[in-house]
Design goal:
Elements lengths: L10 H22 L1 H10 L20 H6 L13 E6 L9 E5 H17 L7 E4 L7 H13 L2 E3 L6 H11 L3 E4 L1 H13 L11 E5 L5 H11 L2 E8 L4 E7 L7 E3 L4 E6 L13 E7 L10 E7 L1 E2 L11 E2 L4 E2 L4 E3 L2 E3 L1 H8 L5 E12 L2 E10 L1 H6 L6 H19 L4 E5 L14 E3 L1 H6 L1
The structure holds 5'-O-[hydroxy(phenylacetyl)phosphoryl]adenosine.
Length: 441
């Protein structure tokens, strides 16, 4: 369901609107946020220099450390009395980043997310089961307000307490489920454990995101649950979920909400724009935000763009699924690889389930990488729970060869019995970095 006319507007119409909004945003940040005013002066740009949408490249980039350096509210463009909400990152790798919203920001965010849920197949009047975490994380409340805006009956279950989630799905009969892909897998497996066939629920559509996932993971979730699973992307610094959303018709790239965000993809080394279709770092500029506007914010996420028209009828730019974050990229003996690429090939192995972890340790000057995987429950039963040494070494060798041939990296593979890898209730932890610990020992 297409909710807004901008989704099918011509490129000229979209860019005209973007230019007007960009000019307003640049003017506002110059007036209201000393950080931007000073940075623009340093770069020798003034708000009057933005005469076409391409002039955006004259503006300096903003990075996460700019947010941390102005913790908590230094980059806000409104007074406290105009704010109605803040969200924040967990701050596991430094000070949390704090973002704020005015009433209008919440209204536009709700409309953006309503559009996203409709793009994924949601319809007014049906139930939406929202298993994203509620709280400072933007997932829970972001999807919640969007779902209500669309007119869906919203079940604010949040993450965790999986058995209750299953009972609610059984009783309320939602058609849409929203959660991280890793948590949905967890829910589906628990249904199987309880003797329920996950394909027999009322669910038809999934709105999955907040962490990188692969096409193979999509296939696994769609097969297990008998649903269409679509990718939702966003980050709190830009607004939260809904910055882009895949359509259930084509499932081929995520439509960017271009009336609210201007997207660029740049080479993270040279910071120059890369051509459509080529991978680079996603950079977003907000076009309508009041409380926390961002100018050319470097997301650290790697993806590519396409301007081709989509079979769903939308004309908005689409981004590819996010391969991973620059800082999650592993460099193993000089070869770059993202955990999601490893996932992609790992899931071609039938005996393995899509729960895995990559453990990094330092041995002298060498990075040691171990891939921990676990075998499928059914398969485990078929061998009477006897994971013999011979079998483990055969399976780990097979996986080692697949990863080596496809990703060109040598990774030690450790095969475990079912339920050995920790399960997530939100964002999955795929990489466990023990390099610092081993250095300290
Ligand atoms: O994860 C917002 C969100 C909530 C998106 C619910 C989708 C669904 P943050 O906690 O600020 O916000 O984390 C943002 O998560 O920079 C990406 O690295 C990653 N991420 C988000 N969505 C996707 C996705 C929310 N669909 C960071 N695919 C981003 C891959 C994603 N990575």
């Amino acid at each position: 369901m297409i909710l807004h006319e901008i989704e099918t507007a011509s490129r000229g119409e979209i860019e005209k609107l973007q230019l007007e909004r960009l000019q307003e945003t640049v003017k506002r940040v110059c007036e209201k946020v000393p950080f931007y005013k000073e940075k623009f002066e340093e770069f020798g740009v003034a708000s009057g220099d933005i005469q076409s949408i391409r002039d955006i490249i004259k503006l300096p980039f903003t990075v996460k450390s700019d947010l941390r350096n102005h913790y908590p509210f230094g980059l806000f463009a409104v007074e406290q009395k105009e704010l109605v909400r803040v969200h924040a990152s967990s701050g596991t790798s430094g000070k949390p980043t704090v973002v704020g919203y005015t009433k209008n920001d919440i209204k536009s965010w709700s409309e953006i997310v309503a559009r996203a849920i409709a793009t994924a197949g949601g319809s007014p009047g049906e139930f939406l089961h929202n298993a994203y975490g509620y709280g400072l994380f933007t997932g829970g409340l972001g999807l919640h307000f969007g779902s209500e805006e669309l007119g869906m009956v919203t079940v604010p279950v949040s993450g965790g307490n999986t058995d209750r989630q299953i009972a609610l799905i059984e009783d309320f009969k939602p058609t849409v489920i929203c959660a991280t892909p890793s948590y949905v897998l967890n829910i589906a497996e628990r249904m199987e454990e309880l003797g329920n066939d996950p394909r027999n629920t009322s669910l038809k559509y999934g709105v999955f995101g907040a962490e990188p996932w692969s096409e193979e993971m999509r296939r696994t979730l769609e097969d297990k649950l008998g649903i269409k699973a679509c990718d939702i992307y966003g980050l709190s610094e830009v607004i939260g979920p809904g910055v882009s959303m895949e359509c259930h018709e084509a499932q081929n790239g995520l439509h960017v909400a271009e009336d609210h965000f201007f997207v660029e993809v740049v080479d993270p080394k040279t910071m120059q724009p890369v051509p459509d279709g080529e991978d680079g770092e996603l950079v977003f500029t907000s076009l309508t935000k009041e409380a926390f506007p961002v100018i050319r914010y470097r997301t650290g996420d790697i993806a590519s763009l396409t301007r081709d028209k989509c079979s769903c009828g939308r004309t908005t730019i689409r981004m590819s699924r996010v391969k991973g974050r620059i800082d999650d990229m592993l460099i193993i003996r000089g070869v770059n690889v993202f955990p999601s690429q490893i996932e992609h090939f790992l899931l071609t192995v039938n005996e393995i389930v899509p729960h895995y972890q990559i453990h990094l340790t330092q041995k002298g000057s060498l990075l040691n990488v171990e891939l921990h995987v676990e075998v499928d429950e059914e398969f485990y039963k078929s061998i009477n729970g006897n994971l013999s040494h011979e079998y483990v070494s055969h399976l780990s060798n097979r996986i080692y060869c697949i990863i080596k041939n496809q990703c060109l990296v040598s990774i030690e593979v450790k095969v475990h019995k079912p339920k050995s890898i920790p399960r997530s209730e939100g964002k999955a932890v795929r990489v466990v970095d023990r390099t610092k610990e081993s250095l300290e020992v």
